[in-house]
Design a protein that fits this description.
This protein is an alpha+beta fold. It has helices spanning about 5-35, 40-60, 65-85, 90-105, 110-135, 140-185, 195-210, 225-230, 235-250, 275-290, 320-335; strands spanning about 215-220, 255-260, 265-270, 295, 300, 305-310, 340.
């Protein structure tokens, strides 16, 4: 995943901090200018502060992050240009340095790169022109060079901090995705976890009661799986589970929900209650499992599958449905395994 794929989300996460930080900075600069009796500067900073408050209202009240982000961007750029072209005093130049990191953060790459280069060019052009026209100006060439150097330093620090922030957000997002995946997907078989399947079953049963849209459940178990673990070890058993899980996913339709129920037991939710279609699906799956010949420690294993079927149309609640499916599975096991029984 590249950094620029998360630019929009990163800008949204950065916006509350940018509004708070710039608001606090503008209040501080307004107070400082007031104590120094620099009323035009006070009006300048207060105007920017009001614009920042408007951005905050748009963000909080109207919940429009994109609009608030755009308004803050325009406010800071306009303030930067106005400070360079009109105000042009040491305090306003310091404020420009505080606005740069926030602009870099809210603009996003590569827009922030173009914006930083443009602002640097405007500052260099205006300041060198002022220094050459009025030699007595407090902004001498050396002062101008120092300020431009500070812009470069602040810009480099801003880009480095922004890159670190985006990298951190990417790691957080990957970790969150992994946690979510672990909750819903069994790491060994690639099928859904029992918790996820139980949640789907509850939702489907409630929907079936309201819409009279019945569905079916298949609970399947690998026959004699314990003997594979005892003879060849758990790694061989895990390999068998993984192969069976892959075959289940490949065989069944995407409309079905399939998961690992417990140990070597699997569960499949069929989105209809057509008995003949469900029975045919179970038989196809049983037949394909019997053809699966995994290799382990030089031996070829023979597998078989026992499956029990139940329909929600014949059950009064979820526990009853699962009980019917499990009883059908036990009957298939008691018949010698490698069978399908419909309850």
């Amino acid at each position: 995943m590249k950094l620029n794929t998360l630019t929009t989300n990163a800008d949204q996460d950065f916006l509350p901090f940018a509004l708070f930080a710039q608001g606090a900075i503008l209040i501080a600069f307004s107070c400082l200018s007031y104590f120094r009796q620099e009323m035009p500067s006070v009006l300048f900073y207060m105007s920017l502060g009001v614009a920042t408050i408007v951005c905050f209202v748009v963000y909080k009240v109207f919940e429009s992050r994109l609009l608030a982000n755009s308004l803050l961007l325009v406010t800071l750029v306009a303030g930067f240009v106005y400070a360079i072209l009109v105000v042009l005093d040491p305090l306003s130049l310091i404020w420009c340095l505080t606005a740069l990191p926030i602009l870099i953060g809210i603009c996003g790459y590569p827009g922030n790169l173009y914006l930083s280069a443009s602002l640097f060019g405007i500052a260099a052009l205006v300041l060198f022109q002022e220094a050459s026209i009025d030699q007595s100006n407090t902004l001498s060439v050396s002062t101008t060079l120092q300020f431009l150097f500070m812009i470069l330093v602040v810009t480099i620090i801003g880009f480095s901090a922004n890159k670190f922030r985006l990298t951190y957000l990417i790691k957080i997002e990957k970790l969150s995705s992994l946690i979510v995946k672990m909750k819903i997907e069994d790491t060994l078989t690639g099928l859904k976890t029992r918790r996820y399947v139980e949640s789907c079953l509850r939702d489907k049963f409630l929907r079936a009661e309201k819409l009279t849209n019945a569905f079916s459940v298949i609970i399947a178990d690998i026959d004699n799986f314990r003997s594979i673990n005892e003879r060849y070890g758990h790694p061989a058993g895990d390999s068998v589970l993984s192969s069976v899980g892959a075959l289940v996913k490949k065989t069944l339709d995407d409309d079905c929900v399939f998961g690992r129920w417990d140990g070597n037991t699997f569960i499949i939710i069929i989105p209809h209650s057509d008995a003949e279609a469900t029975l045919l699906m179970a038989e196809v799956l049983r037949e394909k499992i019997s053809r699966l010949k995994p290799q382990t420690q030089g031996d070829t294993l023979s597998l078989s599958f026992s499956l029990g079927i139940a329909s929600s149309a014949k059950c009064h609640d979820l526990d009853d449905l699962l009980s019917h499916a499990e009883n059908s599975l036990y009957q298939a096991k008691n018949m010698g395994g490698n069978n399908v029984v419909m309850g």
